[in-house]
What we know:
Number of helices: 15
Number of domains: 3
Distance between the termini: 43 Å
Shape: elongated
Structural class: alpha+beta
Number of strands: 11
Order of helices and strands: HHHHEHEEEHEEHEEEEHEHHHHHHH
Amino acid sequence: AIASWTTKFLLGFLPTSETPHVITGAIDYRVLAFNFALSLATGLLFGLAPALRSTKPNLAPTLKDQVGAVAGGGVRMRKALVVAQVTISVLLLIGAGLFIRTLQNLRLIDLGIKPESLIAFNISPAISGYTPERIPALYKSLVERLSAQPGVQAVAFANVGLLEGNEWDSTMAVEGYQAKPGEQMNPYCNSISPGYFRTMGIPVLVGREFEARDEGAMPKPSDPNANDGRGNGYRHAIVNQSYAKRFFGDRGAIGRHIGFGLNPGTPTPLEIVGVVRDSKYTGVRDEVPQQVFFPLLEERTPSSIVVYVRALGDPAAAFAAAQRTMHDLDSNVPVYNLRTLERQIDRSLLVERFIATLSTAFGVLATLLAVIGLYGVMAYTVARRTREIGVRMALGAVQGDVVWLVMREVLALVGLGVAIGLAAAWGLNRVVGSVLYGVSATDPLTIAAACAVLAFVALAAGYVPARRATRVNPVLALRYE
């Protein structure tokens, strides 16, 4: 039952729209049989050593009426296992803390957009039989009708969707800038509709957004085989802060020119008409790239687009409006992959969320096993030392002395395990360093928190048998065998 519930819980992390195969939580009896055999073999393997030891008892304590004497080898082995459990618990708790902080850091990143009340969906008219000549009119009609729907504040669309792992880069020359050999001159690009930055919540710092007049392409040259030198039909471009700062510095980017290509003498006919604030492009983890935006031209309209809708209230109403509007325009063109931007961002952190949850579960489980092991060893030790404790109490030992007698052993076991775990934790950076974000594998706060949690629960587990030892009746303890 636990295995079935756990499997379904883990499958809940997979987004159904992106899962290529049907995965169910049904238990496979072959896997169940393998795990049963493995559990049985593990029990036999670890139970064999004590069983063999019991066949060779040390008769000397028995003949001397010292049944209560502790077999040193057996106790040492138990304590060594407890130390190992504490060590593993420290490592897993530190790992869980690091992955949780990584997830928190990623969720707090400034993406450069306002994802609240922003929804997105995809349409692909070409799949439904639309020719390139008919597609621009469909896009314009969709924006006009959807913008008029109640509860819709703004609508825009783009060729490349944000934070989806897709990218379009192109080699571009900059007016008055001589690129060095091997220098990176490939900004990330996107073609967008007017109102895109307003819809996405990306501020225009200088200049303006694209307007309807920007969607017309430049006239083609008379010679169709000639290189028009006019920027692939584009007339205007908008760049982000990073691009403007790199190539124009404090001189200002407005009115400067860029062009496609990097060969000597490459024309730079595209005029920069705006500079926008930096925003993420491919993913949450990725650094903000240098970006160049172009208007969507009628003659270069993509066959599929991502439509963004800024809702005034509940995004669910915007979802319904989008589906209804597209159905009214053409019921043969499906609306697919509807999502809120907040859900998309959360989905892009699927791996980090899964690792954080799984590592936390393993850390808690390992700590629980360490606590049970520590409690068992100390309870066994107290039981075997009952006569010794009775003698000490008969000679005047108070409860605090008895508690300290047991707890110093607990402190030694926990301290040794934590020390070994901390030493091993220094090697975590090589293993998990590439997965972490905004935190080091040797982060002192995370390590201190993990050690504090483990120490607290371990000392609490050790205190129970220590407290029980103070209730020993000295008279009965002297006769204990």
